Structures are given as C-alpha cells and as structure tokens.
Amino acid sequence: MAYNGDSDHSPAQQSRMPTPIKLLVAGGFGVGKTTFVGSVSEIEPLSTEETITAASIGTDDLTGVGDKVTTTVALDFGRITLDPQHILYLFGTPGQDRFWFMWNELSDGAFGAVVLADTRRLEDCFPALDFFERRGTQFIVAVNEFDTGFHYEPEEVRAALDLKPNIPIVCCDARDPRSATLVLVTLTKHLMSAAASSVR
Amino acid sequence: MSSFEHPLLDDDAGPLVRPYTVSNGRTAPTAKLDLLSLVRSTGQLRPSQLEAEHAEALLLCREPISVAEVSAHLRLPAMVIKVLLSDLVDVGAIIAQAPDPAVDTTDQTVLEALLNGLQRRL
Ligand SMILES: Nc1nc2c(ncn2[C@@H]2O[C@H](COP(=O)(O)OP(=O)(O)OP(=O)(O)O)[C@@H](O)[C@H]2O)c(=O)[nH]1
Ligand SMILES: [Mg+2]
C-alpha cells in the first residue's frame, strides 16, 4: 500500500487504463436488484448519490434552464475486476418509475442488461422490458425466485411477458453469488451471439 | 454535463450543502467526468501536499478507479466528487479517462474478456 511516488506514467502507460464494461440490473420495486448487485460484486455493495437533470430526457435541448427538474437518486453499483485490462461495473437501476428518465444516462454505453422479475408481480418488469426494447439494449430476463412465489417454467414466463424466443430466461436466487454470476454468464453468451448475428 | 447552480437553491438541499464547501462552494467541475470515468494518480503530487478531502480522493486513485467508487468510498455525492477530482486533474495529480461515448458494445474481444472473467469466479 506504499505510496508510489516515483513511478513514471508515460503516455504509453496512460493508454493502458482499463476498459470499463457496464451492465445494468433492472426490474420493478423490491425485486432484488440491490441484492443481486451486492452478491456478484467483489467489493462491498456501494451506492452513490447522483444528481440528475430531467433535461436529459432523450432530447439534446439543454438550454431550457428555466424548467429543468433536478433530482438526486441513490444508485447501487458493484465491481468485478475481470483482468488487468477490463473492469465490469454493474449498476442497479432505481426501481421507482418516476426516475425512468435517468435510464437514458445510465444505459448509454451499457453492453447489456439483466431484467429481474418476481413471479408474484411479473408485470412490474414491463417498464424495463419496454425501455430496453425501445433503446435496442440487449437483455435477458432472470426470475428471482422468492420462497413465497409461484414457480413458473421459463416458457410460461415468456408467454406472460410476450418475450421473443431468442431472449434467454433463467431462474436465479439473487442472494447467491454463484447463481447471480451464472445469470451474468448467460447474459454475456447472449450478447456474444447477438453480436455475432448482427455482423453481416 | 450541465450546470448545477440551481440544485443548491432547492428547499430540500439542506443537508447536501455542507459537502459542497469542500470544493470551495463550486458546483461545476472543470473536467467532464462521468460516473464511469476512470481516474488514476499520476504520481506527481503526494496526498500530504493536499487538503484533507483531496488527499483522501488521491489516495483512492493509486489504481484505476471509477468516479462512482470514489464517491461511494468517501460517502460524498457524485456531484461533489466530480468537482474534487476535477481539481486533482487541474493540478496534474490524476489523469481521467471518460468512458468512450462510441464504445462498441458488440466487440467480441471485450465480450470474451467479460465471459472469461465471470467464469473464473464460478
Ligand atoms: N427469499 C428471497 N428474498 C430475496 C431474494 N432477493 C432479494 N430478496 C429480499 O427481497 C428484499 C428486496 O430486495 P432488494 O435487493 O432490496 O430489492 P431492490 O430491487 O433493490 O429494491 P428497490 O431498490 O427498493 O426497488 C430484501 O429484503 C431482500 O433480502 C431472493 O432471491 N429470495
Ligand atoms: Mg435497491
């Protein structure tokens, strides 16, 4: 932990800053987003308060200072150091619908998303599904199995959510690091095949 | 990023005001920083040459770290941390790298690094 005062940071070294990879965890209120992010993260679950302006709603008109709405939201995030050159940052989207406008900012540059669903309230994930479909952000659906929830087969969930056949649906326990990590593996494989099939 | 002059006038900004004094009351960072901007110490300034909050932030920057993490570790809102870090950029203590706005999210090399890194944790 000694302070490294005499290392010289040449331009070559500067270009070796790692690449951050951003993934999102979305879903309705109380579905387990914070739990999921915390259980896969290598660091304690962190949260930060970010100030967001509603002027960022899909428009590039930032001049309307007069009626700009500013709000502060708490964001959960986690980190996984993948290798010296790649860091995964996982952001939990705020559950409250009234903050939907910041998802644009959050989802800029995101590689993909996990939409968490709770079988007791499947419809709660509709806003997240709509949002990612509209933005063209690749996603998978992970059913977080609460003990008191009904057990549905993935195909039943697919029908209920009207999901395309190519979108993976997996079950998970957001509290279990291995289970949550497997969800991310499924998402990554989905991203790889989506990327491969988009190359013409 | 837009100007943040107005939030301070909000009625409910009360408890948030104190931290802003850390950055001498300024609320707009000079460097454009994003939650996912990575910052790293240049080694040109020692933490002991700086005031408390700047020194703490600089200590966190020995390894590349995101603005979001610095904010979480120092328990200060991201907006405050952006001003602090932008001060450190201005004096040459750290370098910052904004996330690539044109990032290719279908880059197979990056996706493979993601897959391998995740599978190593299973
Ligand atoms: N039984 C069970 N409980 C869970 C599971 N995942 C989360 N919980 C619990 O459900 C509650 C809500 O989980 P959170 O992770 O806070 O949910 P969230 O989506 O972040 O909630 P908001 O941020 O308020 O929208 C917590 O009490 C968790 O402990 C799970 O897989 N099984
Ligand atoms: Mg939460």
Please outline the helices and strands.
The complex is a heterodimer of chains A (200) and B (122).
Chain A: H1 11-14, E1 19-27, H2 33-40, E2 46-53, E3 70-83, E4 86-92, H3 103-107, E5 110-117, H4 126-135, E6 139-144, H5 154-161, E7 169-172, H6 177-198
Parallel strand pairs in A: 1-4, 1-5, 5-6, 6-7
Antiparallel strand pairs in A: 2-3, 3-4
Chain B: H1 14-20, E1 38-41, H2 52-60, E2 65-66, H3 67-74, H4 78-90, E3 94-97, H5 108-119
Helix pairs in contact in B: 2-4, 3-4
Protein name (chain B): DUF742 domain-containing protein
Organism (chain B): Glycomyces lechevalierae
Pfam family, one (chain B): DUF742
Order of helices and strands of chain B: HEHEHHEH
Ranges of chain B where pLDDT stays below 50 over 5 or more residues in a row are 1-22
Strand content of chain A: 25-35%
β-strand number of chain A: 7
Radius of gyration of chain A: 19 Å
Could you give a short account of the major beta sheet of chain A?
Answer: 7 strands, mixed
Roughly what percent helix of chain A? 25-40%
Q: How many strands, what sense, and barrel or not for the largest sheet of chain B?
A: 3 strands, antiparallel
Write out the distinct hetero groups bound to the structure: guanosine-5'-triphosphate, magnesium ion
How far apart lie the N and C ends of chain B? 38 Å
Helix/strand-derived class of chain A? alpha/beta
- The assembly state of the depicted protein chains is heterodimer
Most extensive contact: A-B, 63 and 51 residues
The shape of chain B is: elongated
Strand order of the largest sheet of chain B: 2-1-3
Number of helices of chain A: 6
Strand content of chain B: 5-15%
Strand and helix order of chain A = HEHEEEHEHEHEH
Helical content class of chain B: 40-55%
- Please tell me what the overall shape of chain A is: globular
Family (chain A): Belongs to the GPN-loop GTPase family.
InterPro entries (chain A): Gliding_Motility_GTPase, Gpn, P-loop_NTPase
Protein name (chain A): ATP/GTP-binding protein
Pfam families (chain A): ATP_bind_1 (PF03029)
